[in-house]
């Protein structure tokens, strides 16, 4: 069912005006009367947009909206477009959900003739203008505007009244591992707690930091200190490994010269120095030479470390 009404609704906010034009009906429906401002449409003829960028609708927010609709009705019409025999929501899915839960049979709408690309952009901008998007939804919306519509961070920031640094910092959150992004979405981590994790060089370190954040209920400043500590420790370990690697390489070359055969030193992981030395030979005669050399040279030597020597043909 479609019928007309003329109760004037407010605009959809800064940024959307340029996208959506004047709030007036642009389509005639056979057998109905239309007035300038909006149309009353049977709720059974309306369907949500499956590509709606918002995935989570806060329950308390919906309850508040339902109370408002009970008292004042739907002041701002739902924007839809004709799609076959139904009308797809362009902007206003929260109002649609609230009206459905209230058992309403019809709602005020504005029918617009939009392409799929325009619908996507409007839905993104409308959601970004709200204050209750979770951080990852917001970040994905910025990224989609950048990827799909080739908009720069500067353009997006100006259009939505945000700073370019805010847009850039939100998009960077998408570089975090999925588990951490999920924590952000459900509110187990704040943006202030999550953002410093981007400085850590590996996913393993980031996940380790998250466990420490949760166990210690660390605030943003404490997380920054934790990240510095983890980064410093990682850098020291990396430098130590490089030093050890250089020492092993030098020792390998020394043994190779002394034995006159290819040598490989393989260390086991752990604090204690353990591993094995592999000496390659290509004949029985060469093996006898190596054994004779070690018997003559190291007969009275006791090894300082737990090292196994293997001979390989």
Automatic annotation (TrEMBL):
- What family does this belong to? Belongs to the ParB family.
Keyword annotations for this protein, in alphabetical order, are: Chromosome partition, DNA-binding
SMART domains on file? ParB (SM00470)
What Gene3D superfamilies does the annotation carry? 1.10.10.2830, 3.90.1530.30
Q: Which InterPro entries match?
A: Chromosome_partition/occlusion, HTH_ParB/Spo0J, ParB/RepB/Spo0J, ParB/Sulfiredoxin_sf, ParB_dimer_C, ParB_N
Q: Where are the coiled-coil regions?
A: none
In its UniProt entry, what is this protein called? Answer: ParB/RepB/Spo0J family partition protein
Q: Where is the ParB-like N-terminal domain?
A: 39-128
Q: Does the keyword Lipid metabolism apply?
A: no
The organism is Veillonella absiana
């Amino acid at each position: 069912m479609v019928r007309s009404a003329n109760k004037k609704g407010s605009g959809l906010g800064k940024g959307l005006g340029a996208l959506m034009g004047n709030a007036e009906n642009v389509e005639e429906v056979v057998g109905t009367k239309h007035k300038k401002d909006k149309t009353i449409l049977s709720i059974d003829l309306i369907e949500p947009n499956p590509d709606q960028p918002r995935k989570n609708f806060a329950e308390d927010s919906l309850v508040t909206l339902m109370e408002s609709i009970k008292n004042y009705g739907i002041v701002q019409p739902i924007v839809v477009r004709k799609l076959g025999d139904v009308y797809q929501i362009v902007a206003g899915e929260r109002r649609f959900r609230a009206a459905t839960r209230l058992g309403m049979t019809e709602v005020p709408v504005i029918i617009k003739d939009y392409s799929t690309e325009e619908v996507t952009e409007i839905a993104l901008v409308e959601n970004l203008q709200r204050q209750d998007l979770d951080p990852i939804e917001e970040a994905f919306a910025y990224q989609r505007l950048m990827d799909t519509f080739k908009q720069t961070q500067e353009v997006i920031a100006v259009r939505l009244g945000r700073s370019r640094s805010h847009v850039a910092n939100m998009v960077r959150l998408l570089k975090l591992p999925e588990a951490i992004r999920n924590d952000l979405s459900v509110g187990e981590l704040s943006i202030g707690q999550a953002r410093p994790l981007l400085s850590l060089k590996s996913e393993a370190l980031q996940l380790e930091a998250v466990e420490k954040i949760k166990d210690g209920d660390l605030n943003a400043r404490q997380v920054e200190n934790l990240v510095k500590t983890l980064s410093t420790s990682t850098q020291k370990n990396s430098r130590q490994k490089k030093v050890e690697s250089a020492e092993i390489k030098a020792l390998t070359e020394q043994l190779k010269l002394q034995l006159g055969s290819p040598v490989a030193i393989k260390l086991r992981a752990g604090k204690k120095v353990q591993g094995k030395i592999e000496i390659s030979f290509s004949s029985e005669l060469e093996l006898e030479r190596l054994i004779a050399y070690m018997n003559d040279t190291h007969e009275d030597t006791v090894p300082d470390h737990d090292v196994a020597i293997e001979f390989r043909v």
